Amino acid sequence: MPSPSLTKGNRLLEHLSLALCGVLALAFAIVVAPLQVPDEHGHFLRAYVISRGEFAGRAIPALPASVVSFVKRYPEASERFRKLTPREIVRDLPADAATYAAGNTVLANEDGHHAHLVSGVVASSTYCPLVYLPASLGIWTARALHASPLVMMYAARMFNVIAFVAALAVSFRLAPRCRALMTAVALMPMTLQQAGGISADLVTIALSFVGLSLVLYAREHLVSRRFLFIVAVVFVMWSLCKFSIWALPLLLLIPSSAFQNRRAWLAYIAAVSICMAGALLIWGRIAAGNMEALRALRLTVGVDISANVRLVIAHPLAFARHLLEIFHSNYKYELVGFIGAFGWWQFSLPLWTRAVYLLLLLLAAATEFSTKPFLGWERGVLLLVCLAGAVFVHATLAVSDIALSADHLGRIYGDFSSAVQGRYFLPFCLAGLLILRQSRANLPKVTLLAIVTGVGTIHALAALALIRSAFYL
After folding, report:
1. What DSSP character marks residue 358?
2. 257 within domain boundaries
3. Mean pLDDT of residues grouped by 10 in the chain (473 residues)?
């Protein structure tokens, strides 16, 4: 699967762009204070449990005192309470430093600074362990070396960065005509924060790059049965990442000419669809106990998931209208989070910098040259994937996180002011941006990649400086 012929200078720039994505993701992994990526406490504990071989796990796992104490040492949104010093971080690195508060193994908000600890742990237990594979491997490695919980956390972050760079390298090779756009998305501060943190997002984002790149390659090249099998496996894995069933329509972009006839093409799409749905059903069965624990936990804060589901089924049009109203009122907040909002309280760079980066994304999407322009129906498929992803995110969070109610006219209400964060859009943003691809006015490949790499790097460095000033003295 060779890339197009390139000069030595072009290759150097492309290797540089990949290296910068990795170096900057690593910088985010180091600079962001411990457990300050949103919900990182729960994700770290989930990855820790998986590293012990407990793949399904329990909603509230049994944990050693040193790990629980480490999690409680770093509060949610720590910048609101106090700033850290590098010396404090270094002091917690040795294994013998993990003995503070020994004996306390209760996950509770005892200090008032871990309001989302229990809910984060329970919610993360409903995710397939696939999304924590790199992080759990990092923790397993650190545990094998008898390292402290802080070293385990950094090892998990480092392994996530490695997975991120590997996914980018594969994607760049499969879809060289989308390299500038992928680089622009990869260098976005929000992408780098998720790549350098512990969450269920990193593997989801990585597989979204690889999955879309595989489809784009199959769309432009003759492919073998082995290649189509790889596509099927990746899509099944993708569906298990945060229930990403919305990616399914992308299979329609694989041309029927890759098969013996149109019937074989339809059979392939149907078979992969069944496997994706089947994988989700199997995982749902395995994690049924944890999902029931999540429903019970939501009831304690007035959110009845089962009642919400019944309400949506009874009033689907009213629910759809409610989602539109919510998106209309919150799109600015969601867009801020999409470009880059950091920490638990979502602080971000000035508005004008985010506007510049949004323009950069649009420039890369619209002006990168393509040897095979998208047809109208293909743009429709890309739009469907983007809309399906956005609707899925909003609908899922509305049902699981909000107390919905309906009036006598069937209108649905619910406080949805901050439930959806922009980072949730990263896995399907590439499909949406590709809709803008055109062939009438294109920038030279090297020029566009240089602009994207330069602006993206400067923006990421500015974000790192902001993060450094927010968390540290």
Report:
1. H
2. yes
3. 53 90 97 94 96 91 90 87 86 67 61 84 95 98 94 97 98 95 96 96 97 97 96 98 96 95 96 97 96 94 91 90 86 86 84 94 94 94 96 91 73 63 93 94 92 97 95 90
DSSP 388-440: HHHHHHHHHHHHHHS--EE-TT--EE---SSS--GGGGHHHHHHHHHTT--SS
Please report whether residue 241 resides in a domain. yes
Q: Which residues pair with 413 in a beta bridge?
A: 405
Q: How many domains are there within the chain?
A: 1
| Residues 122 and 90: beta-carbon distance below 8 Å | no
DSSP string over 68-91: HHHHHHS-TTGGGT--B-HHHHHH
Which ranges in 221-315 belong to alpha helices (H)?
Answer: 225-240, 262-286, 288-299, 305-314
Q: Is residue 30 part of a domain?
A: no
Q: State how far the Cα of 24 lies from the Cα of 421, in Å rounded to an integer.
A: 22
Rounded to two decimals, what is the model's pTM? 0.93
Residue 32 lies in a domain: no
Domain encompassing residue 460: 8-25+38-471
Q: What interhelical angle do 179-186 and 8-31 show, nearest 10?
A: 20
